[in-house]
Amino acid sequence: VRYPVLLTPAEKQMAREVCGFDLLRSEGRSYVCDVNGWSFVKNSYKYYDDAACVLRKMFLEAKAPHLSSTIPPVLPWKINEPVQPSEGLTRQGSGIIGTFGQAEELRCVIAIIRHGDRTPKQKVKLKVTEEKLLNLMLKYNGGRPRSETKLKSAVQLQDLLDATRILVPRARSDRESDSEAEDIEHAEKLRQVKAVLEERFALP
């Protein structure tokens, strides 16, 4: 159940700097514990290349400001022609000679990688053709067949549970399907919906 929460001044400042995040309050302090992903960047190579450039510039300005202005602002593999050493910056073996003549060696590689693992959402998706469920959707969305319907109140959930209870024990021979396996899977999902409603909302 979601409730509106008033943010503290510090939390409001976090919200100005981060778009979409989860907040954890502990011992009087607040922490950003997760930054939500944006769907438009999931398959965007440009987004991650730009992020790499921004982070590289931040690291250089913090730890090697004398190199910050000499390294090209774009990633090397984005340049069609071979990268030419900038003025005041030459390569020598595995090290780099800076303007001040001090040899510098690569100490580490920092990578920005989007992991593929994510917490599975507890969702059940099923395509319904049962008249009872379709009528229930129309009842709560104003009779618009192609409109989204959200059932949240206790009365609405009770109606959904009542309809599901009727459908679960019944043989589904009246429903058109591509295979018997689909029928079994559909019936199992209905049982899951029924079980969750009975357990979570403790409805009679």
TrEMBL record:
Q: Which UniProt keywords apply?
A: ATP-binding, Cytoplasm, Kinase, Nucleotide-binding, Transferase
**Where does the record say this protein resides?**
Cytoplasm, Cytosol
EC number(s) on file:
2.7.4.24
An example Gene Ontology CC term for this record: cytosol
- Reactions catalysed according to its record: 1D-myo-inositol hexakisphosphate + ATP = 1-diphospho-1D-myo-inositol 2,3,4,5,6-pentakisphosphate + ADP; 5-diphospho-1D-myo-inositol 1,2,3,4,6-pentakisphosphate + ATP + H(+) = 1,5-bis(diphospho)-1D-myo-inositol 2,3,4,6-tetrakisphosphate + ADP
Keyword ATP-binding attributed: yes
Enzyme type, top EC level: transferase
Keyword Transferase assigned? yes
Q: Which GO terms describe its biological process?
A: inositol metabolic process; inositol phosphate biosynthetic process
GO MF annotation, one? ATP binding
Q: Which family does it belong to?
A: Belongs to the histidine acid phosphatase family. VIP1 subfamily.
The record's PANTHER family line, in alphabetical order, gives: DIPHOSPHOINOSITOL PENTAKISPHOSPHATE KINASE, INOSITOL HEXAKISPHOSPHATE AND DIPHOSPHOINOSITOL-PENTAKISPHOSPHATE KINASE
For this entry, the protein name equals diphosphoinositol-pentakisphosphate 1-kinase
